[in-house]
Write a structure and sequence with these properties.
alpha/beta, six-stranded parallel β-sheet, 10 helices, single chain, 36% helix, Rossmann fold
Length: 259
């Protein structure tokens, strides 16, 4: 399996280390696309991959799957191109799909071309329960409460306080780099406008935490995940990078667990 990565940041470097050095996926990263002309060549040399600054040249390489590990802005520019080139796609910046019409367009394109778009679970869990619960339309309420340090949110605060409460759509608008988890939860569940999000800044915490609550015909769920941040970036949970690696590890498996 030939893997390409869009992005040259912390997640890209982590995946290159785990896949090309530690061989933790059935494949190899052969190409990286990005706009950082300092970091890109360094990654190219360190991990023996080709670095591209032209998206068409990148997509014309013999890639089986592309991992988007950049930003919402970059993802909005490139995800359709990836699918149009008949590459399977893993989307890290799930906030790019806050507009349902865009998500539907990408899904329709992928379906017509026989490709697959993967949305990793990121820094949370419980998505399989939500998908099962809504199978017959019986999922009624979903809420996620995210608690992070000031450094993780990129704000200053000396006290614990709620800094946001609203829909998943609004949350991604306000914190596009921090609450992708809210959007993947909404896509798996009852939608971006119906999913409630609370964001709490807490100077006392050392881990990012997410508490998911859901109710419906199935019963009630409450799940709390406490994440260690990536050592290289306190704004990103290590589990987010691991969830992408898991998609790559299990892509071709004959046995799939959960939905």
């Amino acid at each position: 399996m030939n893997i390409g990565i869009i992005g040259t940041g912390n997640i890209a470097a982590y995946l290159l280390e785990q896949i090309n050095v530690n061989h933790l996926a059935d494949g190899k990263v052969i190409a990286v696309f990005g706009r950082n002309k300092e970091v890109g060549p360094r990654l190219s040399k360190q991990f023996c991959v080709d670095f591209y600054t032209d998206i068409q040249e990148f997509l014309n390489t013999p890639l089986d799957i592309v991992v988007e590990a950049s930003t919402i802005e970059a993802a909005s520019l490139y995800v359709e191109d990836v699918v149009a080139h008949k590459k399977d796609l893993v989307v890290s910046s799930i906030g790019v799909f806050k507009e349902t019409a865009f998500l539907d367009r990408v899904i329709e394109l992928a379906t017509s071309l026989g490709t697959t778009v993967f949305l990793p679970s990121g820094a949370i869990g419980g998505l399989d329960i939500l998908q099962s619960a809504k199978a017959a339309g019986g999922l009624k309420q979903v809420q996620i409460t995210t608690r992070k340090s000031p450094a993780s949110l990129g704000i200053e605060s000396e006290e614990e306080k709620v800094v946001f409460e609203g829909s998943a759509y609004q949350a991604v608008e306000k914190f596009p780099k921090n609450v992708n988890v809210a959007l993947v939860l909404a896509i798996a569940g009852i939608g971006v406008e119906q999913t409630n999000v609370r964001v709490i800044v807490d100077p006392a915490v050392t881990q990012n935490s997410h508490t998911i609550e859901a109710e419906g015909d199935f019963g009630r769920m409450e799940l709390k995940v406490e994440n260690n941040p990536m050592p290289s970036n306190p704004k990103t949970s290590l589990l987010a990078a691991l969830s992408i690696l898991s998609v790559l590890q299990n892509k071709e498996n004959a046995l799939r667990i959960g939905n």
